[in-house]
């Protein structure tokens, strides 16, 4: 049974990791489009601030302080949605954390904790969402990463977690589809996004980490997430740069290795000294209501590749229309080419 997805202004949407970065941008964008929101994160103060902000602008939102690495907290999110709105229509698994450092240098306990959040938190959320959505239909949107497709050095354990996210999401989608469940399962794969991700990540490098361009605004990902809430989409890259890296890794893996080794390792290291290691989002909530990070380079506000992949019919129509327009302009010039040439020669003779 195909999922019948509602318009955003008719939906109740659950968003984990809602107090920062992509989750925050998605929450604000969804609220502006009329969705009712269940906002979850560890940062109590930031969540309260966001909920008050949305209500002050005429929206509807409730908040739940939750650590998605704890299954009982994830169950509490679903319970809050049912108590507040009776049900929910879309569940967005966005909560996650990052880590920078050579794999040999990273503590095993930190690797495990990252997996507890990025992988197990998403699994808990997915299973809780599906249990509800199988009965009434709706969308599950999991936020992976371009590193779901192509691992990158100095973020090895993060890359591994996002590979796990992709594998779980793809398998769950197939099982639900086989069972005829009316649930759309989407995987959104952001590239480098100007969020506080590098600031909140646990860092084992000798400098502050930084993004490798191209870098996109968090709204690019938010638009993709909310599109998946309304339209059944298997997966989508948020940012064409990530698609390029994935394609290079697929078709020329050795070349991708050499590029990563020569450019990404050095490019990830900034000229800024590292913050104290205890200041990180793995061990502590940030309590900082911020969409953007501190990236100093160019930030793309949109991605033509992502828009084209989400709206293929419109894109084909535009391309076809542009082709017809060019043909129309070219045809008179071509058909009158001989006369035009003779006319110019005649004028020259005069």
Q: Name the CATH superfamily classification of the largest domain.
A: NAD(P)-binding Rossmann-like Domain
**Total strand count, please?**
12
Strand order of the largest sheet: 3-2-1-4-6-7-11
What is the mean pLDDT?
Answer: 91
Compressed to H and E, one letter per element, the order equals EHEHEHEEHEHEEHEEHEHHEHHH
| N-to-C span | 76 Å
Low-confidence stretches: 317-326, 333-338, 340-350
CATH architecture type of the largest domain: 3-Layer(aba) Sandwich
The major beta sheet can be summarized as: 7 strands, parallel
If you compute it from the alpha carbons, what radius of gyration comes out, rounded to the nearest whole angstrom?
A: 24 Å
In the CATH scheme, the class of the largest domain would be: Alpha Beta
> From the helix content, strand content and strand pairing, which structural class follows?
alpha/beta
Oligomeric organization of the protein chains: single chain
Give the CA-based shape: globular
